[in-house]
Amino acid sequence: MFTYLSGAIMKRQKKLRIPLYENRSVSQCVEAVFDFMRTCRSVWLRLVLLLFLPSGALLAFSVFVNADNSSTDIDHMGVFSALDFLFSGDDQSSLLFLLFFYIGVWMVFVHVYSLLEAYRSNEGQIDDFSLSAMKPYLIDVARRSWWLPALLMVMVFVCMLHGVLFVIGLVVLVPMALFPSVWLFERDMIVPSISKAFFLGWRAWWQLAFVIFLTTAIGLMVTTVLDVPILLGNMFFSTLFSQESTGFMSILLTLLLYVFNTLSYVALFICLSMVIMGCAYEYGTVSDRIDAASVDADIAAFEDL
User: Within the chain, which residues score under 70 in pLDDT?
Assistant: First the structure.
């Protein structure tokens, strides 16, 4: 009986393993993202609170500090009005918002790749990891990824272009979605990493594009669901305290709006982390496929000798 239970437990643990390098379809890459979040939910949530919550608080702080100088209505700030604030505020408020947003995106890279690296290094047994156990992975990824948000912002900017420039930018930059994974997992120099990202990305352009599209769509749906109670809370408390209020009520309203907007930005970072993790699993898929093809070619060449 004990032998049977031990075998069943080991079989289940093996089944729950989510290897990075495995040939997957588009749907399987997306499924791997949610399997990873479910399997490592404890440490995943701890890192969300450690990395995303302070970043969201900084973004909400930048909005409230500069609200008087911006046309943005802070009572209805949310994920989808972030860019509206960025372009409607003055130069100082926009730069402050951009700086905190950069930090937030950096924390998303740290969150995703430190978890994936710890998962690979510890055979998937990281759900009970403490923050101190994750510290070496967090520091290592933070040190190597501090400039990656600039790459992501360039890609978003290109997607905002129109006409031929948009098409050219989209075709060229989709393979670059694999660059962070190549850079952080293979630890090569920048130019060889870019070269390999294009090498892998061109061979799976459509699958990579669909993975990005699906994870973005699902992430936005999740973000929208999380934003609904936040938006309703904003509207409720704004209506409740619509009259001129002073003292305690005014402070309470400001605090509540600040908390709601902080949670809204945390939801945005969760959405972005899903997209980046989906690209990481697509990198594992293409790498495994090409490595398997090269091994088969070597075997065939050996048999021809």
Answer: 1-16, 65-93, 158-159, 161-164, 230, 233-234, 236-250, 292-305
pLDDT attached to residue 261: 83
Q: CB neighbours (10 Å) of residue 88?
A: 13
Paired tokens of 150: 């600039």
Q: What pLDDT was estimated at residue 222? A: 79
Helix 91-121 to helix 26-39 angle (10° resolution) is 90
Residue-wise DSSP of 79-125: GGGHHHHHHHS-HHHHHHHHHHHHHHHHHHHHHHHHHHHHHHHTTT-
Taking the model in full, what pTM does it have? 0.81
Q: Report how far residue 223's alpha carbon sits from residue 216's, in angstroms, rounded to the nearest whole number.
A: 10
Residue-by-residue DSSP string for 39-88: HTHHHHHHHIIIIIHHHHHHHHHHHHHTGGGSS--GGG--GGGHHHHHHH
Q: What values do phi and psi take at 71, rounded to 5? A: -85, 0
Gap between the Cα atoms of 305 and 300, Å rounded: 9
- Exposed/middle/buried for residue 35 (C-beta within 10 Å: 0-12, 13-18, 19+): middle
CA distance 160 to 21: 33
Identify whether the C-beta of residue 305 lies closer than 8 Å to the C-beta of residue 43. Answer: no
The DSSP line for 145-199 is HTTHHHHHHHHHHHHT--THHHHHHHHHHSGGGGHHHHHHHH---HHHHHHHHHH
Chain CA centroid to CA 234, Å: 26
Packing angle between helix 91-121 and helix 248-303, nearest 10 degrees?
50
Q: Retrieve residue 279's tokens.
A: 């690209």
* Helix (H/G/I), strand (E/B), else coil: 246: coil
